[in-house]
């Protein structure tokens, strides 16, 4: 198994040389190199923030409690998996301590990893995983499946109401292509595989998978399935759910095979229970995924709308006529302004000047991308462009679209730099119908502003629409504020609570693609109702009677 880059313990990955994120600025580069002067000034003015050095505590000083696994349990785990696949060393445990939410990073940066798993276990097959779950049930050990470790909702928190010892079940040994069925456009893979490895394997056959979330470099296919992820091209290729033809779920009560390609009417679809189960029902140990030919043509371009409302109306119109591009991303005025300032360079300056000259103000940037056969791309582009233009859109050309594509994995690297300079940086997301989107947008921004405005501090809330559907779209909010160094965790918890209440009240979903995790579970009942929660509990207690499978997430207390 080839070594893959690791996420860092206190942030995102170390930027590999030559990675596009280098242009956005990696953490070693520091604030001055990561952000152009105009962007630093803009943030200071908007936020009431003075840049300062707030580096994380050195890794050797991070606090970790001794493993709580009793000796007989460790011996049983070792007898099952072999010594090299049961790890209790400091680094293995630190690397699986939680995910990559702002709260996770705050804790790790402050030197706290007391919530790290007691051990890391690495099964190699479905059978080994099932045996491991049975063993952990007997020994009363909590099991938290660990894919790429990129959860942003506390999905790896490992919290157990009974405070039992916990292991992180790392899936990296199950990370290969097992079968490629070209006539059926289907690939069978291990859940520990990451996107880049899958694309490399498929590319040799002229195929692609096409699921590209911003966490693509590190997240795993099993993690995508467990959280119902959505990638940047989901409007075209579909959500991850749409791409799963079937999967294998190892549970403490046995192994389930769900999904019957190409389609089946044999009762309710059990695949839907496994997708989004977040490790609470067992471990996804194999995935059968839909693949497609590599697109012969890709075309990305930028457009500008005078206002957010005009951009929304244009996209709604595209959706109604089934003309939405494969990638669609409309930024509001705040995000457009910040992105143009952050990208710096002559291109952004020329663009701003051109928009002003056409009395477009700063506008709202729309990035669209089409992929597929040349004739079809051409026809779709032509029809969609005519509609965008008729709704007041100004075409900015391919360089804007290509620039977004080049830098699209860079933001998490920049986040590390901003955290080092005294900022709070976090994102949240939802989805709503076209009718409800404007209300949800206003309500969330208002809630965040009210919660985070205090003592000279003001937040910057930047929003974009992405993942379009015939019935609505997803909204993604990025929030920056001067960090409250006294109560940084409370500062974000208050804001998140206010935003979540607001988006639910306005008709948004609790989560469109980040999942429930530990952070959203107090609100799950509001989304699916008390009976819905009882149904999920009943399924869990049948598959996981001892409640060892990731008990800290999804289901409310
Ligand atoms: C910077 C950044 C950008 C992101 N961008 C996106 C985005 O564009 N789109 C998006 O959808 N998400 C995004 N995310 C969220 C995250 O990447 C996704 O939720 C992803 O699906 C998690 O995959 P993972 O392999 O890292 O899973 P992990 O974080 O390891 O686990 C996530 C949850 O799934 C469970 N789990 C993992 N593997 C399995 C398995 N094999 N069987 C059962 N349960 C399992 C875990 O126990 C946990 O509850 C982003 C996160 C970050 C930090």
TrEMBL record:
Residues at the catalytic site: 476 (proton donor/acceptor)
UniProt keyword annotation of Hydrolase present: no
Lineage start: Bacteria, Bacillati, Actinomycetota, Actinomycetes, Geodermatophilales
Molecular-function annotations in GO: alkylglycerone-phosphate synthase activity; FAD binding
GO biological process, one term: lipid biosynthetic process
Site, as annotated: Important for enzyme activity: 329
Family listed: Belongs to the FAD-binding oxidoreductase/transferase type 4 family.
Residue numbers binding substrate: 415
Keyword Flavoprotein tagged: yes
Known cofactor(s): FAD
Residues engaged in binding FAD: 145-151, 227-230, 278-284
InterPro entries, A to Z: Alkyl-DHAP_Synthase, FAD-bd_oxidored_4_C, FAD-bd_PCMH, FAD-bd_PCMH-like_sf, FAD-bd_PCMH_sub2, FAD-linked_Oxase-like_C, Oxid_FAD_bind_N, Vanillyl_alc_oxidase_C-sub2
FAD-binding PCMH-type domain span: 113-294
Region (Disordered): 1-31, 45-64
Pfam families referenced in this protein's UniProt entry, alphabetically: FAD-oxidase_C, FAD_binding_4
Record keywords: FAD, Flavoprotein
Name used for this protein in its record: Alkyldihydroxyacetonephosphate synthase
């Amino acid at each position: 198994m080839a070594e893959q880059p690791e996420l860092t313990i206190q942030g995102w990955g170390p930027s590999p040389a030559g990675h596009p994120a280098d242009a956005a600025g990696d953490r070693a580069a520091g604030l001055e190199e990561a952000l152009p002067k105009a962007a630093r000034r803009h943030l200071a003015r908007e936020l009431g923030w003075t840049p300062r050095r707030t580096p994380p505590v050195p890794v050797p000083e991070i606090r970790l409690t001794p493993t709580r696994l009793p000796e007989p349990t460790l011996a049983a785990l070792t007898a099952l998996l072999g010594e090299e696949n049961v790890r209790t060393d400091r680094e293995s445990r630190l690397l699986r301590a939680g995910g990559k939410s702002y709260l996770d990073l705050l804790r790790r940066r402050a030197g706290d990893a007391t919530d790290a798993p007691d051990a890391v276990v690495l099964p190699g097959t479905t059978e080994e995983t099932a045996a491991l779950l049975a063993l952990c049930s007997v020994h009363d050990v909590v099991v938290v499946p660990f894919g790429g470790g990129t959860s942003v909702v506390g999905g790896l928190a490992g919290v157990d109401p009974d405070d039992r010892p916990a292991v992180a079940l790392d899936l990296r040994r199950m990370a290969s292509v097992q079968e490629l069925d070209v006539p059926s456009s289907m690939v069978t893979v291990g859940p520990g595989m990451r996107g880049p490895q899958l694309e490399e394997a498929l590319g040799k056959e002229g195929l692609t998978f096409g699921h590209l979330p911003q966490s693509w470099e590190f997240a795993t296919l099993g993690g995508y399935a467990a959280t119902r992820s959505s990638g940047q091209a989901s409007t075209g290729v579909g959500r991850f759910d749409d791409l799963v033809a079937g999967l294998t779920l190892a549970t403490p009560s046995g192994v389930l095979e769900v999904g019957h390609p190409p389609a089946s009417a044999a009762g309710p679809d059990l695949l839907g229970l496994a997708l989004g189960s977040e490790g609470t029902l067992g471990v996804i140990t194999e995935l059968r995924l839909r693949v497609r030919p590599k697109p012969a043509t890709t075309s990305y371009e930028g457009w500008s709308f005078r206002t957010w409302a005009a951009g929304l109306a244009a996209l709604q119109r595209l959706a109604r006529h089934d003309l939405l591009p494969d990638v669609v991303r409309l930024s509001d005025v705040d995000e457009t302004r910040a992105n143009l300032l952050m990208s710096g360079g002559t291109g952004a300056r020329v663009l701003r000047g051109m928009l002003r000259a056409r009395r477009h103000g700063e506008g709202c940037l729309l990035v669209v991308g089409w992929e597929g056969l040349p004739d079809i791309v051409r026809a779709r582009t032509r029809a969609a462009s005519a509609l965008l233009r008729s709704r007041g859109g100004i075409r900015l050309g391919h360089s804007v679209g290509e620039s977004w594509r080049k830098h699209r994995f860079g933001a998490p690297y920049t986040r590390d730099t901003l955290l080092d300079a005294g900022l709070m940086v976090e994102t949240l997301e939802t989805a709503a119908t076209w009718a409800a989107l404007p209300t949800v947008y206003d309500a969330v921004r208002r809630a965040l502003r009210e919660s985070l405005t205090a003592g000279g501090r003001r937040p910057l809330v930047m929003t974009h629409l992405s993942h379009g559907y015939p019935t609505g779209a997803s909204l993604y909010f990025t929030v920056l504020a001067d960090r409250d160094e006294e109560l940084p965790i409370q500062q974000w918890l208050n804001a998140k609570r206010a935003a979540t209440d607001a988006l639910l009240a306005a008709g948004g979903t609790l989560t469109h693609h980040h999942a429930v995790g530990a952070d959203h579970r107090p609100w799950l009942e509001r989304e699916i109702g008390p009976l819905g929660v009882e149904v999920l509990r009943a399924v869990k207690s049948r598959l996981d009677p001892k409640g060892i499978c990731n008990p800290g997430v999804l289901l409310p207390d």
